[in-house]
Write a structure and sequence with these properties.
The protein has four domains: about 120 residues, no CATH class; about 60 residues, no CATH class; about 140 residues, CofD-like domains (Rossmann fold, 3-Layer(aba) Sandwich); about 240 residues, Spore Coat Polysaccharide Biosynthesis Protein SpsA, Chain A (Alpha-Beta Complex), CATH 3.90.550.10. It has an eight-stranded mixed β-sheet with strand order 5-2-1-9-10-11-13-12, with helices on both faces. A seven-stranded mixed β-sheet has the order 16-15-14-17-19-18-20, sandwiched between helices. It is elongated and about 105 Å long. It is an alpha/beta fold and about 650 residues long. The protein is built from 25 helices and 20 strands.
Length: about 650
């Protein structure tokens, strides 16, 4: 199987979990594209000490992030790159003492763990950077090494040794530290640019550091790329201008760089493009402000281009939301192109995580952006409601890339429709929906479709369902009955397999995955999830389920036994749990079933239809925690009698 070539637009750490997950899977080949406009603290200092140099921090962070999961050797190198240089603790020490401490005491501790070639190269670059700064004399701060990362110092030496070619320095740096699992590229040809921003309230953000620092909730209107830092006279002039005046001044001063030819080649050969999460106005949007990048992406209309984002506020986004950020992606990309295109030319779909799934859900929906719509997959990309789960995103990218390469197939993934019948479950439905939407379906090789059927609820259940707009919804008239509601839901599905799952929170969501896997691994057209298991000692199992509730235990034991006996004697179907609420079907089986019945007779009719059509029924054990009547349990003894009657009557009226 050919590798899936992924181009990931990233910052230093914003998409770190995603990139680590991708390189951990052999089916992917990863290229990480970053910008180098960072200039905070030590990074800004080193840029000022070496005029014309871009910021090394996001390059270093991206390399360290991937080295840390590459192998044990890579982890040791990453630790060294991230080491923060602190001069000796004595307050009255000289710059010379700091350099001697670094070269004779600290650096050897790390380089002793490296290969001889790597150690010599990195030490040489450190010396090159130190010699250059030393040549500046008194113009360099006396304690310029304080809190400097060793990786930034090494990169500075690589840059100076590469004849001040920033992109050549990235290649040399990556090679020297042994990065093999991915390629790190700067978005541009290496032109020196600095970031400046303006907020809606007119506040000037004079550098990248001020863009990422905590700030007011007024959103950032625009960031600009300038060919040099603002002079003191320009800063004073800008302070006298209003918002529009600042934007006009900075627009005239803007200098947009050109696309790195290697990035262009990687996009040309990519199978999927990912706009990663992170600090938007420093790590991502400025990357898109690159001449030729939009044109390169727009030419790849044959592949998926995925925007990964969340609604957790970073310092720089404040009152921005997903639609406004996507419009900014469109605007910044268009700034580097002579052709103004709609966002749909650059992004095909979104993976969006939110802090809660109360009002959004996993699945497929359309994100309305006014003149265009994007397919949105909402809510499943995080395990904790906050940070993106790299493995989940990698699963999603894999399924999308394979689907795009072979339309109509999923290359190992199965489409499973989940039908959830609801009748007056306002108390338990939110929990069930939350579990369904947070479950990591893609890790189970399942692409889910959620169909909720309301059988005429009068307790407000419908309002709960309305909070999950991505789920397909079928509304039945009051009194339709459970059987008809389930049948209507099944007929509304499109998946290769269908699993019916109740809304009463008595079963675990994992049961759906178990039934689905049984359907396609065994080839059985129908699978029941048995509450009593498949052991001979069903009595013990029932006592465990019902505890000291004698009446419920006896009803379940003897009622279940009677149903199993009749199904076996009359229809030659030995089913341990006829009335289980978790049942799975293949698409072919559904087409051969009548799907008739009003209540529990619906379950009995499945036995009848399967027998008449010679369809095998498999059973697998599932966990079950029954509620009481006082807790809202709806099935009654009369339902069991209806099922018994259906088994007998259909035999007589054959």
């Amino acid at each position: 199987m050919d590798k899936i070539r992924v181009v990931l637009f990233s910052g230093g750490r914003g998409a770190s979990a995603i990139s680590r997950a991708i390189v951990g899977r052999p089916e992917f080949e990863l290229t990480v594209v970053v910008n180098a406009y960072d200039d905070g603290l030590s990074t800004g200092l080193i840029r000022r000490l070496i005029p014309g140099m871009l910021g090394p921090s996001d390059i270093r962070k991206s390399v360290s992030n991937l080295l840390s999961v590459q192998d044990d050797y890579g982890r040791r190198v990453a630790e060294m790159l991230e080491f923060r240089i602190l001069a000796p603790s004595e307050p009255a020490h000289s710059s010379g003492e700091s350099l001697d401490w670094l070269l004779t005491e600290k650096l050897p501790v790390y380089t002793d763990n490296l290969t001889k070639t790597c150690a010599l190269q990195l030490t040489e670059w450190v010396v090159t950077a130190l010699d250059f700064v030393g040549s500046l004399g008194d113009s360099a701060p006396s304690r310029w090494l304080d809190d400097m990362s060793l990786g930034n110092l090494i990169f500075a030496g690589a840059y100076l040794s590469s004849k001040r070619d920033f992109n050549a320095a990235i290649a040399a740096f990556s090679s020297a530290v042994g990065l093999k699992c991915a390629t790190i590229l700067n978005a541009t040809q290496g032109e020196c640019r600095v970031l400046v921003g303006v907020k809606d309230d007119g506040t000037l953000l004079p550098d990248e550091a001020s863009i990422v620092n905590p700030q007011s909730d007024s959103p950032i209107t625009r960031v600009f790329l300038l060919d040099s830092y603002l002079r003191h006279d320009e800063l004073h002039h800008l302070l006298d201008l209003d918002h529009d005046g600042k934007v006009h001044f900075l627009s005239a001063r803007e200098s947009i760089p050109h696309i790195n030819h290697q990035v262009n080649e990687k996009i040309r050969d990519a199978d999927i493009i990912v706009y990663g999460p992170g600090t938007q106005h420093s790590s991502l949007l400025p990357t898109y402000l690159t001449r030729g990048l939009a044109d390169s992406i727009a030419l790849r209309g044959d592949i998926e281009r995925v925007f990964v984002g969340n609604l957790n506020a970073d310092n720089d986004i404040q009152s921005d939301n997903i639609p406004s950020l996507l419009r900014k992606v469109e605007s910044y990309l268009n700034s580097g192109s002579e052709i103004a295109r709609d966002i749909s030319a650059y992004v095909t779909r979104c993976f969006l995580s939110t802090p809660t799934v109360d009002y959004t859900s996993w699945g497929f929906s359309n994100l309305d952006l006014g003149n265009s719509e994007l397919s949105a997959h909402i809510g499943q990309w995080t395990a904790d409601g906050h940070a993106h789960d790299g493995n989940r995103v990698a699963d999603g990218l894999f399924s999308l890339a394979r689907w795009r390469a072979s339309p109509g197939t999923t290359e190992g993934y199965r489409t499973v429709s989940i039908v959830v019948p609801v009748l007056n479950e306002v108390d338990r439905l939110p929990s069930v929906m939350d579990k369904l939407l947070r479950f990591d379906w893609l890790a189970k090789l399942i692409l889910p479709e959620l169909v909720v059927v309301d059988g005429g609820s009068t307790d407000g259940s419908k309002r709960i369902i309305d909070r999950f707009p991505v789920a397909s919804f079928v509304e039945m008239p009051a009194g339709s009955g459970r059987g008809k509601a389930i049948s209507a839901g099944i007929l509304a599905t499109t998946g290769d397999f269908v699993v019916v799952f109740p809304s009463d929170d008595e079963y675990e969501v994992e049961a759906i995955s178990s039934l689905a896997h049984a359907l396609w691994s065994t080839g059985a057209p129908i699978v029941f999830g048995s509450r009593v298991g498949l052991c001979a000692d069903t009595d013990t199992r029932l006592r465990e389920i019902y505890g000291g509730r004698t009446s419920a235990y006896l009803t379940s034991k003897w009622g279940g036994f009677a149903l199993s006996l009749l199904a076996g004697v009359l229809w030659r179907r030995w089913i341990a749990d006829v009335l289980t609420s978790v049942k799975g079907f293949s698409r072919d089986a559904i087409e051969q079933l009548s799907l008739a019945g009003w209540s529990a007779d619906w379950d009995a009719r499945l036995i009848v239809d399967a027998s008449r059509q010679s369809l095998p029924i498999a059973e697998i054990p599932v966990n079950y925690s029954p509620r009481t009547v006082s807790e809202g349990k709806k099935i009654k003894k009369i339902d069991g009698l209806r099922a018994l009657t259906a088994l007998v009557v259909k035999r007589i009226r054959r």
